[in-house]
């Protein structure tokens, strides 16, 4: 039953990805100012949204780990697995944002990169979570998970700063399309393609996150088993 | 298609391709990790039986 549900979800996700691609490339019209280049938006913005959501999941997992590491160690391990999975998959989506953005910028602005607030805070966010993953990979000892959880919480503090950066400061990055100043928004003919791609990337991200979480839980079980064997020996 | 539109098209293709290379590359990485874990777990399963 579970296998059938997972298979159905995978098929639905692939169908959504194909439909989103079709909408972005063949259905949505060219932008009046940017022409075809605007189509990068349909991958760039959903990737940023998914990255923010997964960093929030990592934040919740980190808080859960710190709160329950002594009182409920089993639950703390589950929280830690969510924290690591959210951070890692979030970094993958953030990497997409940091590569598709400069590709757009090169054509739209004539430069690959500029140190404006939105771009810089996004790069800082990526660097914080990459350092989180490096800490998880190379540090050892009982304090590693605790240190990682604290770093994960600090990293998540940058997410609202990234989101608000082009509202708080004058940036070269385009003004917010949604929830921005008066006159912001999308042409109705483009909204469908955007929403389909949001849905598709959320579905894909959830699938990847679930796989990463399963791998981490399996890793925790193997580590616990090996620790028990070492104690028994 | 004029030169500007052609270049725009190439940048869109590059952005979509890079996105999929990153996503599918990560999926392959997860698959390899999953397989390695499964192999590491199987001796444990045999011992616990």
SSE string of chain B, helices as H and strands as E: H
Task: State the assembly state of the protein chains.
Answer: heterodimer
Percent helix range of chain B: over 70%
Derived from helix and strand composition plus strand pairing, the structural class of chain A reads mainly alpha
Largest sheet of chain B: none
Query: Biggest interface: chains and residue counts?
Result: A-B, 32 and 24 residues
Which band does the percent of strand residues of chain B land in? under 5%
> How many distinct beta strands of chain A?
0
Write up this protein.
The complex is a heterodimer of chains A (233) and B (49). Chain A is mainly alpha-helical and 233 residues long. Chain A has one domain. Chain A contains seven helices and no strands. In chain A, helix 2 packs across helix 5, helix 3 runs antiparallel to helix 7 and helix 4 runs antiparallel to helix 5. The mean pLDDT of chain A is 92. With 49 residues, chain B is mostly helical. Chain B is 94% helix and 0% strand. Chain B is built from one helix and no strands. The mean pLDDT of chain B is 86. The chains are: A mainly alpha (233), B mainly alpha (49). Chains A and B meet through helix 2, helix 3 and helix 7 of A and helix 1 of B.
């Amino acid at each position: 039953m579970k296998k059938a549900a997972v298979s159905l979800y995978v098929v639905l996700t692939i169908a959504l990805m194909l439909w989103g691609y079709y909408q972005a490339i063949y259905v949505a019209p060219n932008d009046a100012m940017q022409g075809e280049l605007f189509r990068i938006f349909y991958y760039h913005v959903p990737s940023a949204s998914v990255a923010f959501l997964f960093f929030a999941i990592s934040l919740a997992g980190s808080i859960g780990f710190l709160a329950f590491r002594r009182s409920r160690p089993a639950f703390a391990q589950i929280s830690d697995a969510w924290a690591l999975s959210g951070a890692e998959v979030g970094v993958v989506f953030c990497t997409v944002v940091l590569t598709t953005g400069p590709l757009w910028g090169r054509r739209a602005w004539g430069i690959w990169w500029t140190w404006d607030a939105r771009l810089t805070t996004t790069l800082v966010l990526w660097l914080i979570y990459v350092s989180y993953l490096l800490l998880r990979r190379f540090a050892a000892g009982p304090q590693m998970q605790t240190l990682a959880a604290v770093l994960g919480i600090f990293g998540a503090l940058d997410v609202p700063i990234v989101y608000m950066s082009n509202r708080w400061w004058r940036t070269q990055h385009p003004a917010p399309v949604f929830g921005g100043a008066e006159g912001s928004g999308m042409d109705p003919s483009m909204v469908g393609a955007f929403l389909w791609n949001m849905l598709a990337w959320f579905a894909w991200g959830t699938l990847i996150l679930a796989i990463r979480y399963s791998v981490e839980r399996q890793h925790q079980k193997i580590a616990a088993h090996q620790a028990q064997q070492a104690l028994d020996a | 298609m004029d030169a500007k539109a052609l270049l725009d098209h190439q940048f869109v293709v590059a952005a979509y391709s890079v996105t999929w290379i990153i996503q599918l590359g990560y999926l392959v990485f997860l698959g390899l990790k999953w397989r390695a874990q499964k192999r590491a777990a199987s001796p444990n399963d045999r011992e616990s039986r």
